[in-house]
Design goal:
With 474 residues, the protein is α+β, with helices and mostly antiparallel strands. The protein has helices at residues 4-11, 16-28, 30-36, 76-86, 130-148, 185-194, 205-210, 223-227, 268-308, 312-336, 345-359, 379-400, 438-449, and strands at 39-46, 49-56, 73-74, 92-95, 99-108, 111-121, 171-175, 180-183, 234-239, 242-253, 256-266, 342-344, 366-372, 376-378, 405-414, 417-424, 454-458, 465-472. The protein is elongated. The two termini are 29 Å apart.
Length: 474
C-alpha cells in the first residue's frame, strides 16, 4: 500500500519529527493546490534520485496528472531542479510551453527535507482576473512559508469538524489589520446570509461581524482571533439562524504577520442535520430508558404474583418469566446509556450474572467464571443473546449443580462470529439431551432465528455438560 507513512518507513532516513512535519504538510496542502489551480507533488530524496511520496490535485481546476504517480522515480531535468531546490533556500522556477513548474524546498527544523513540486497549466491568452491575482499573492506567501518552515503551522487544529471550509466554499484575503483586501463571490454570499449586505472589500471584518452578535448570544471564544487572521484556527458564527464556519491561515514572513487567508462556508444545513441526529439519538435513549423502567415494573409484578401462588409449578413458571423479563430490561438499560444502537455486551453479561446468582439460587456454593469477550452487539441481537445465556446458565445451576460446582463461560469473538461455550461440572444430562422444556425451546428458537447460528449440547468425558453455540452477529 503506497501511503506516505509506508514510503518514509522504507527509506529509514527521516527523524520522527520530520515524518510528522511531512504528514502535517499533506494534511494542509490542499489549500495551496486549490488557490494556485495547480497539482502538488511531494518529492523526497531516495539514494541517487527523488521519488513522489504524495500527490494533490486541485479542486478548482483540471488536473495535469491523471494517472497515479505516487512511488514513481523522478529523473531528467526535473530531478536536476529538485536537487537544486533541496540544496538551496529559494523557490526554483522552470517553464515549458504548456506547464509552469515551481520547486519549493520543504524546511523542517532548519533543514530541507523534501521538495514541493508545483505544476500549473500555462495559458498565455488568458487575462488574469482579480481573484487570480489575489490567489497568486496568497499562494506566493504560503510557498515562501514552506521554505522557511512556517507552513504547515504547528498549532493548526487536527480534528476538523464536518463542514470545514474549503477554497471553493469562500475565500477572503485580509491584511495585517484584519481589513478585507479581496472576497470571493461565495464568501460574499456567506456573509450576506449572516446580515452583512454591503461590499466587504475595504471593511474590517471583525467590526462588521461584531455588529451582528445577537443579545444573549455566546460567540466562539476563538472568533476574534480568527476574524483578524491572527491565529491558525477554526471558529463558527451564528446570526439570523445562519451558521458560517471560518478557518484562518495567517500569512507570515520570517515571523512577521503579513495578513491572512480566511476560508468560509455556510454550514447551516449541516449543523441542522447534526442537531436532528442528536435529537433522534436522545429520543432513542429515552425510549430505551422508559422500556427498561416498564420491564422492571413488569418483573416486579411477576415476582409479587409468584410469591402469592400456592401451586409450586405455577410459582416456578412465574419466576422463570420474571427472570426473562429482567434479562431484557438489563439490555435496554445498556442501550439507554449509549448513543449508538449497540451495547458492550461484557458489561451486560456482568449484570446478567449478578441477576442469575440472585434468582437461580441453590443451597450449595456455585462459582461462575467468565473467559474471553463478547465485544459489541447490536440491540436487536443483544436481547436474544442475553435471554439465551440466562436460560442456559440458570438451567445449569438449578438442574446440574444442585450439589454445588462450577460454571465456565467462554466467549471467543472473531469479526462477526461469536464462538460460545458454557460448561459445568455437574451431574450431566440424564436422558443424553437437553430435554424439551420451554427454556430449551426458547434457546433453540432464538439461536436459529435471531442469532443466525447453531447450538448443541455435549457430554464431556470428564462429566458435566457443555453447551456449544456458534453465532453470526450483525
Amino acid at each position: 500500500m503506497p501511503t506516505l507513512n509506508n514510503i518514509l518507513n522504507r527509506l529509514h532516513t527521516f527523524a520522527p519529527m520530520q515524518v510528522e512535519w511531512l504528514h502535517q504538510l499533506i494534511r494542509d496542502w490542499q489549500v495551496i493546490a486549490d488557490l494556485s489551480f495547480a497539482d502538488l507533488m511531494l518529492c523526497i530524496p531516495a539514494r541517487d534520485t527523488f521519488i513522489v511520496a504524495a500527490h494533490a490535485r486541485p479542486a478548482t481546476a483540471g488536473t495535469l496528472i491523471e494517472h497515479d504517480v505516487v512511488t514513481e522515480k523522478v529523473d531528467g531535468d526535473i530531478a536536476r531542479f529538485l536537487e537544486e531546490a533541496i540544496c538551496g533556500d529559494k523557490i526554483t522556477q522552470y517553464r515549458s510551453q504548456t506547464i509552469a513548474h515551481e520547486f519549493v524546498p520543504v524546511k523542517c527544523g532548519g533543514k530541507n527535507i523534501a521538495v514541493l513540486h508545483v505544476l500549473r497549466a500555462v495559458r498565455p491568452d488568458l487575462v488574469p482576473a482579480q481573484n487570480q491575482q489575489n490567489y497568486h499573492d496568497i499562494v506566493h506567501a504560503l510557498l515562501k512559508m514552506v521554505t522557511t518552515g512556517e507552513f504547515p503551522m504547528e498549532d493548526t487544529p487536527t480534528g476538523y469538524r464536518h463542514g470545514t471550509p474549503r477554497v471553493s466554499d469562500g475565500v477572503l484575503h485580509l491584511n495585517e489589520d484584519g481589513m478585507v483586501l479581496y472576497a470571493s463571490p461565495n464568501a460574499v454570499s456567506n456573509f450576506r446570509r449572516l446580515g452583512i449586505d454591503k461590499p466587504l472589500a475595504g471593511a474590517v471584518l471583525a467590526e462588521e461581524v461584531t455588529e451582528l452578535i445577537e443579545d444573549y448570544a455566546v460567540p466562539d471564544e476563538a472568533l476574534p482571533l480568527v476574524l483578524m487572521g491572527r491565529q491558525a484556527w477554526i471558529a463558527e458564527f451564528e446570526a439570523h439562524q445562519v451558521i458560517v464556519s471560518m478557518r484562518a491561515i495567517p500569512l507570515l514572513e520570517n515571523g512577521r504577520r503579513l495578513g491572512a487567508v480566511l476560508l468560509t462556508r455556510d454550514v447551516t444545513e449541516i449543523r441542522r442535520h447534526e442537531q436532528q441526529l442528536l435529537s433522534k439519538d436522545a429520543t432513542i435513549r429515552e425510549i430505551n430508558h422508559r422500556v427498561k423502567n416498564n420491564l422492571q415494573t413488569v418483573s416486579a409484578l411477576l415476582r409479587l404474583q409468584a410469591r402469592r401462588v400456592v401451586n409450586e409449578e405455577s410459582r416456578k413458571a412465574l419466576e422463570q418469566a420474571q427472570r426473562r423479563v429482567s434479562m431484557i430490561a438489563i439490555v435496554h438499560e445498556g442501550l439507554s446509556q449509549n448513543i449508538n444502537e449497540v451495547v458492550e455486551f461484557d458489561e451486560v453479561f456482568g449484570s446478567l450474572l449478578r441477576t442469575v446468582r440472585d434468582i437461580a439460587v441453590t443451597d450449595e456454593q456455585v462459582e461462575i467464571r467468565f473467559l474471553g469477550s463478547f465485544g459489541k452487539v447490536r440491540a436487536e441481537q443483544a436481547t436474544a443473546l442475553a435471554v439465551v445465556l440466562n436460560e442456559i446458565i440458570s438451567n445449569a445451576i438449578e438442574h446440574g449443580l444442585r450439589r454445588g460446582g462450577e460454571v465456565e463461560v467462554c466467549a471467543g469473538r472473531e469479526g462477526n462470529i461469536l464462538d460460545l461455550k458454557i460448561k459445568d461440572n455437574g451431574c450431566g444430562m440424564t436422558d443424553g439431551g437437553p430435554g424439551n422444556g420451554l427454556g430449551t425451546q426458547i434457546v433453540k428458537t432464538l439461536v436459529r432465528t435471531e442469532l443466525n447460528g447453531k447450538i448443541e449440547w455435549l457430554q464431556p468425558p470428564q462429566g458435566g455438560t457443555c453447551v456449544h453455540a456458534v453465532l453470526h452477529l450483525r
